[in-house]
Amino acid sequence: MKFYKDPRFKHGANAILLTLGVIAGVILVNMIITGLSSKATLKFDFTQNSLFDFSPETNDLLKNLNTPVDVYAFYSGSWDSDKNVRQVKEYLDRYRKGSSNFRLQYVDPEKNPAIALKFQQSGESISGGSIVLQSGSRIKTISIDDMFTSQQDQSSQGPCTQSIQVEQKITSALLYVTTGAGTKAYIVGGHGRDTAQDIKTALTGEDYAVSSLNLLAGDVPDDASVILMPNPERDLSNDEVNKLDKYFDKGGKGVFLFMAGLGKLPNLENYLSEWGVQVNDDLVIEHDSNKFMNPYPYILFPDMQSHDITSKLLNQSIVFVAPQSSSLTLKSGNPQNATVTSLLKTSDKSFGMKNYQNAQQFNKAPDDAAGPLDVCALSTRDTPKGSISSSASILVMGASQAFTAQFMSNSGTANSDFMLNAFAWLTNKKGGMDIRPKDITPGTLFMTQSSFIVVLLLALLLTLLIAVMGFVVWFRRRYK
After folding, report:
1. Are 197 and 136 part of one and the same domain?
2. Residue 131 · residue 74 · CB < 8 Å
3. pLDDT of 412-468, one tens digit each?
4. How many CB atoms lie within 10 A of CB 76?
């Protein structure tokens, strides 16, 4: 039989051999990659916002992790189908491959309840999905809810995951159990309604220990890394001002938040003026259509100025939203000999409207301050010799509403990162300006009036172009 000489047989045999060769090659490559991946992370992250890519801070921490850390992830088999759990496991496996001292162990609490019971007897709250990190006597527990933020889905009326903060939580826990470092923030109360709940939530999420402080009852505690005074409606007494000054003389750090309409606070305003920051009783109005949220000229898009706090934000295509802001007057020559730096500045078409109460129109009066205007500033001064820190710093913000959930929760704004960066810079919090929750929901697009017009014109032009092309095709076929 000469079938093997048949051209059809030869082509078929060649096709089979080629197919077998390709299959063998795929198997060989898969074996090589599998062997290498057991020693190094060879996964590529093509997810939105690079969800699983570590920050330089985390990579450096793992590279220099010389202390063994036992990590227990409490997951039963029924959790394997949960999307959030699969994402957490992906992170955990990357941590394990980043350092041999990240000693990860998955524990089924139903099959092995003894380990969970041991931590519960130590005062830890352990539930399904919890992760426990332990190094020596230091223990840090992270719940599954701590690693994700959720919001109400308008279509399903149920919760949906908004952002992932697994890296943020695990890296912070690693730092805690290996160094014992902690950052304490105190919110000064007793001067009006508490408007800092959203800031407190954000700081707690960054592993700050947040407590209340009443200056009438005592001095600022020695363990305070930073103090916050949000929207004071009642002025400080002379004794309270002296306590603040005493705290800053030790190298203290502070954040003071204002908004238009708070009224006169002469003692506090005079004290901040000594630092070179004068808070004005006005409402900043913006007339540059690219610098406010149309049609509200008092919801500003101020320009972020160059500073360590803003450096990474300036490279991103996001805006800072500053609603209902008072302006600040910065003074380089001041009694505290402080260096004053602007962080947020409006355009030269803005102005500080003095008679803004019940205003129907937002037109500049002759005595209104002309822009550009500062709405956020940082002031730093040296401290006396022998102080805990060589410098003291305060941040003054004229638009406190910028730090509410309405604006901080939107991935299209820089508000949340700006606020957390500011606190991290003030407290010298390690990694505080590098690791952020990663948003996985589409954010609201804040568009200026001119941007909206450009997009609208492009959409109309594209629609017209498609219509013309369709007509040309029809015409040519009709009369061909």
Report:
1. no
2. yes
3. 789 998 999 999 999 987 655 556 556 655 555 555 566 667 777 787 888 888 877
4. 15
